[in-house]
Amino acid sequence: MAAPAALQRSVVSPAGRHTASLIFLHGSGDTGQGARAWIKQVLNQDMAFQHIKVIYPTAPARPYTPMKGAFSTVWFDRYKISNDCPEHIESIDSMCRGLTDLINDEIKNGIAKNRILIGGFSMGGGMAMHLAYRFHQDLAGVFALSSFLNKDSAVYQALKRNETVLPELFQCHGTADELVLYSWGEETNKMLKSLGVSTSLHTFPNLNHELSRTEIEKLKTWILEKLPVEGAKTNK
Protein backbone atom coordinates (compact mmCIF):
# COMPACT_ATOMS: atom_id res chain seq x y z
CA MET A 1 0.00 0.00 0.00
CA ALA A 2 1.26 3.49 -0.86
CA ALA A 3 2.51 5.62 2.00
CA PRO A 4 -0.10 8.17 3.09
CA ALA A 5 0.44 11.66 1.69
CA ALA A 6 1.87 14.16 4.16
CA LEU A 7 -0.88 15.95 6.06
CA GLN A 8 -1.56 19.56 5.13
CA ARG A 9 -0.84 21.85 8.04
CA SER A 10 -1.11 25.44 9.24
CA VAL A 11 1.84 26.50 11.41
CA VAL A 12 2.37 29.27 13.98
CA SER A 13 6.15 29.66 14.27
CA PRO A 14 7.77 30.48 17.61
CA ALA A 15 8.89 34.07 18.12
CA GLY A 16 12.33 32.90 19.28
CA ARG A 17 14.40 29.70 19.09
CA HIS A 18 12.31 26.59 18.36
CA THR A 19 12.83 24.07 21.18
CA ALA A 20 9.39 22.40 21.48
CA SER A 21 6.35 21.57 19.34
CA LEU A 22 2.60 21.38 19.87
CA ILE A 23 0.24 19.48 17.54
CA PHE A 24 -3.42 20.58 17.69
CA LEU A 25 -5.96 18.28 16.02
CA HIS A 26 -9.22 19.88 14.85
CA GLY A 27 -12.73 18.51 15.38
CA SER A 28 -14.69 16.54 12.76
CA GLY A 29 -15.39 18.40 9.53
CA ASP A 30 -12.97 21.24 10.35
CA THR A 31 -9.45 21.93 9.01
CA GLY A 32 -6.13 22.92 10.57
CA GLN A 33 -6.63 26.47 9.29
CA GLY A 34 -10.19 26.47 10.66
CA ALA A 35 -9.05 25.39 14.16
CA ARG A 36 -6.29 28.01 14.15
CA ALA A 37 -8.76 30.73 13.07
CA TRP A 38 -11.26 29.65 15.76
CA ILE A 39 -8.64 29.89 18.52
CA LYS A 40 -7.50 33.24 17.10
CA GLN A 41 -11.10 34.47 17.26
CA VAL A 42 -11.51 33.28 20.88
CA LEU A 43 -8.19 34.81 22.04
CA ASN A 44 -8.20 37.82 19.65
CA GLN A 45 -4.74 36.60 18.59
CA ASP A 46 -2.93 33.41 17.55
CA MET A 47 -2.05 30.91 20.26
CA ALA A 48 1.68 31.65 19.99
CA PHE A 49 4.77 31.06 22.12
CA GLN A 50 8.38 32.24 22.33
CA HIS A 51 9.85 28.73 21.83
CA ILE A 52 7.00 26.40 20.79
CA LYS A 53 5.96 25.75 17.20
CA VAL A 54 2.17 25.21 16.98
CA ILE A 55 1.09 22.85 14.19
CA TYR A 56 -2.53 22.51 13.04
CA PRO A 57 -2.75 19.56 10.60
CA THR A 58 -5.83 18.86 8.47
CA ALA A 59 -7.43 15.41 8.36
CA PRO A 60 -7.80 13.98 4.83
CA ALA A 61 -11.43 13.82 3.62
CA ARG A 62 -12.96 10.35 3.94
CA PRO A 63 -16.47 8.83 4.02
CA TYR A 64 -18.01 9.46 7.46
CA THR A 65 -20.72 7.08 8.63
CA PRO A 66 -22.59 9.53 10.95
CA MET A 67 -23.04 11.73 7.84
CA LYS A 68 -24.48 8.79 5.84
CA GLY A 69 -21.12 8.18 4.16
CA ALA A 70 -20.60 11.76 2.91
CA PHE A 71 -16.95 12.85 2.68
CA SER A 72 -15.69 14.86 5.63
CA THR A 73 -12.33 15.91 7.07
CA VAL A 74 -12.33 13.48 10.01
CA TRP A 75 -9.43 11.74 11.75
CA PHE A 76 -11.29 8.42 11.74
CA ASP A 77 -14.72 6.95 11.09
CA ARG A 78 -17.32 6.25 13.77
CA TYR A 79 -20.21 3.82 13.60
CA LYS A 80 -22.20 6.50 15.45
CA ILE A 81 -21.55 9.46 17.75
CA SER A 82 -21.84 7.51 20.98
CA ASN A 83 -19.51 6.19 23.66
CA ASP A 84 -21.42 2.90 23.72
CA CYS A 85 -20.44 1.30 20.41
CA PRO A 86 -17.29 -0.33 18.96
CA GLU A 87 -14.45 1.87 17.69
CA HIS A 88 -13.65 1.98 13.96
CA ILE A 89 -10.15 0.76 14.79
CA GLU A 90 -8.93 0.33 11.19
CA SER A 91 -9.37 4.04 10.39
CA ILE A 92 -7.97 5.08 13.80
CA ASP A 93 -4.81 3.00 13.30
CA SER A 94 -4.35 4.23 9.73
CA MET A 95 -4.42 7.86 10.93
CA CYS A 96 -2.05 7.04 13.81
CA ARG A 97 0.49 6.13 11.12
CA GLY A 98 -0.01 9.46 9.32
CA LEU A 99 0.31 11.44 12.55
CA THR A 100 3.40 9.46 13.56
CA ASP A 101 5.02 10.84 10.39
CA LEU A 102 4.18 14.34 11.64
CA ILE A 103 5.80 13.62 15.04
CA ASN A 104 8.85 12.19 13.26
CA ASP A 105 9.15 15.37 11.16
CA GLU A 106 9.55 17.35 14.39
CA ILE A 107 12.11 14.87 15.75
CA LYS A 108 14.08 15.24 12.48
CA ASN A 109 14.02 19.00 13.10
CA GLY A 110 15.89 18.38 16.36
CA ILE A 111 12.96 18.41 18.79
CA ALA A 112 13.12 15.72 21.50
CA LYS A 113 10.04 13.50 21.84
CA ASN A 114 9.53 14.68 25.43
CA ARG A 115 9.31 18.24 24.07
CA ILE A 116 6.26 17.45 21.90
CA LEU A 117 2.65 17.82 23.08
CA ILE A 118 -0.40 16.56 21.21
CA GLY A 119 -4.09 17.20 21.70
CA GLY A 120 -7.20 18.60 20.12
CA PHE A 121 -10.85 19.49 20.15
CA SER A 122 -13.62 16.86 20.15
CA MET A 123 -12.61 14.08 17.72
CA GLY A 124 -9.12 15.63 17.64
CA GLY A 125 -8.73 15.00 21.37
CA GLY A 126 -9.91 11.41 20.96
CA MET A 127 -7.38 10.91 18.16
CA ALA A 128 -4.60 12.39 20.33
CA MET A 129 -5.39 9.97 23.19
CA HIS A 130 -5.15 6.97 20.81
CA LEU A 131 -1.91 8.26 19.33
CA ALA A 132 -0.17 9.03 22.63
CA TYR A 133 -1.42 6.29 24.95
CA ARG A 134 -1.16 3.43 22.44
CA PHE A 135 1.86 4.39 20.29
CA HIS A 136 3.79 7.36 21.74
CA GLN A 137 3.89 7.06 25.52
CA ASP A 138 7.07 9.20 25.70
CA LEU A 139 5.41 12.44 24.55
CA ALA A 140 5.35 15.43 26.94
CA GLY A 141 1.59 15.33 27.46
CA VAL A 142 -1.88 15.11 25.93
CA PHE A 143 -4.83 17.51 25.98
CA ALA A 144 -8.44 16.75 25.11
CA LEU A 145 -11.07 19.50 24.84
CA SER A 146 -14.73 18.31 24.71
CA SER A 147 -13.52 14.80 23.85
CA PHE A 148 -14.21 11.19 24.85
CA LEU A 149 -13.17 7.58 24.34
CA ASN A 150 -15.62 4.74 23.69
CA LYS A 151 -16.40 2.42 26.61
CA ASP A 152 -14.23 -0.48 25.42
CA SER A 153 -11.60 1.73 23.80
CA ALA A 154 -8.39 0.19 22.48
CA VAL A 155 -6.65 2.85 24.61
CA TYR A 156 -7.96 1.21 27.79
CA GLN A 157 -6.93 -2.25 26.54
CA ALA A 158 -3.39 -0.99 25.80
CA LEU A 159 -3.01 0.67 29.21
CA LYS A 160 -4.09 -2.46 31.07
CA ARG A 161 -0.83 -4.02 29.82
CA ASN A 162 1.30 -0.93 30.40
CA GLU A 163 4.00 -0.49 33.05
CA THR A 164 5.71 2.74 31.94
CA VAL A 165 5.16 6.32 33.08
CA LEU A 166 2.46 7.85 30.89
CA PRO A 167 2.00 11.37 29.50
CA GLU A 168 -0.19 13.59 31.67
CA LEU A 169 -3.71 14.35 30.39
CA PHE A 170 -5.23 17.85 30.51
CA GLN A 171 -8.96 17.61 29.85
CA CYS A 172 -11.65 20.31 29.54
CA HIS A 173 -15.39 19.84 29.05
CA GLY A 174 -18.51 22.02 29.13
CA THR A 175 -21.44 20.80 31.22
CA ALA A 176 -23.92 22.00 28.54
CA ASP A 177 -22.31 19.97 25.71
CA GLU A 178 -25.12 18.29 23.79
CA LEU A 179 -22.97 16.55 21.16
CA VAL A 180 -20.28 14.99 23.36
CA LEU A 181 -21.94 14.67 26.75
CA TYR A 182 -20.03 15.88 29.81
CA SER A 183 -20.57 12.43 31.38
CA TRP A 184 -18.68 10.82 28.46
CA GLY A 185 -15.67 13.06 29.10
CA GLU A 186 -15.89 12.48 32.84
CA GLU A 187 -16.04 8.69 32.36
CA THR A 188 -12.98 8.84 30.03
CA ASN A 189 -11.08 10.80 32.67
CA LYS A 190 -11.97 8.32 35.44
CA MET A 191 -11.01 5.31 33.31
CA LEU A 192 -7.64 6.76 32.32
CA LYS A 193 -6.92 7.75 35.92
CA SER A 194 -7.71 4.20 37.07
CA LEU A 195 -5.22 2.91 34.47
CA GLY A 196 -2.33 5.01 35.78
CA VAL A 197 -2.63 8.27 33.80
CA SER A 198 -2.12 11.50 35.74
CA THR A 199 -5.23 13.44 34.71
CA SER A 200 -6.98 16.74 35.33
CA LEU A 201 -10.55 17.55 34.27
CA HIS A 202 -11.53 21.22 34.05
CA THR A 203 -15.30 21.69 34.08
CA PHE A 204 -16.92 24.67 32.37
CA PRO A 205 -20.51 25.30 33.50
CA ASN A 206 -22.96 26.25 30.70
CA LEU A 207 -20.33 25.72 27.97
CA ASN A 208 -21.69 23.82 24.97
CA HIS A 209 -19.59 21.94 22.33
CA GLU A 210 -17.24 24.88 21.85
CA LEU A 211 -14.06 26.59 23.05
CA SER A 212 -13.94 29.39 25.59
CA ARG A 213 -11.30 32.00 26.31
CA THR A 214 -10.86 30.85 29.93
CA GLU A 215 -10.34 27.29 28.70
CA ILE A 216 -7.68 28.27 26.13
CA GLU A 217 -5.89 30.44 28.71
CA LYS A 218 -5.83 27.47 31.15
CA LEU A 219 -4.53 25.27 28.32
CA LYS A 220 -1.76 27.77 27.50
CA THR A 221 -0.65 27.81 31.17
CA TRP A 222 -0.51 24.01 31.20
CA ILE A 223 1.39 23.92 27.88
CA LEU A 224 4.08 26.17 29.37
CA GLU A 225 4.27 23.94 32.48
CA LYS A 226 4.86 20.90 30.28
CA LEU A 227 7.13 22.65 27.74
CA PRO A 228 9.04 25.35 29.66
CA VAL A 229 11.66 27.51 27.98
CA GLU A 230 14.90 25.50 28.11
CA GLY A 231 17.46 26.82 30.57
CA ALA A 232 17.43 30.39 31.83
CA LYS A 233 18.24 31.90 28.43
CA THR A 234 15.67 34.38 27.18
CA ASN A 235 15.72 35.85 23.70
CA LYS A 236 14.92 39.50 24.35
Structural account:
By secondary structure, this protein is an alpha/beta fold. The chain has six helices and nine strands. It has helices at 32-43, 89-108, 123-135, 154-160, 182-194, 213-226, and strands spanning 9-12, 20-25, 52-57, 61-64, 70-73, 116-121, 141-145, 168-174, 199-204. The strands form two sheets. It has a seven-stranded mixed beta sheet with strand order 1-3-2-6-7-8-9, sandwiched between helices. Strands 4-5 form a two-stranded antiparallel sheet. Helix 2 crosses helix 3 (123-135) and helix 3 (123-135) runs parallel beside helix 4. The radius of gyration is 17 Å and the shape is globular. The model is unreliable at 232-236 (pLDDT under 50).
Report the end-to-end length measured between terminal Cα atoms: 49 Å
Radius of gyration: 17 Å
SSE string, helix = H, strand = E? Answer: EEHEEEHEHEHEHEH
Number-wise, the strands total 9
The secondary structure category is: alpha/beta
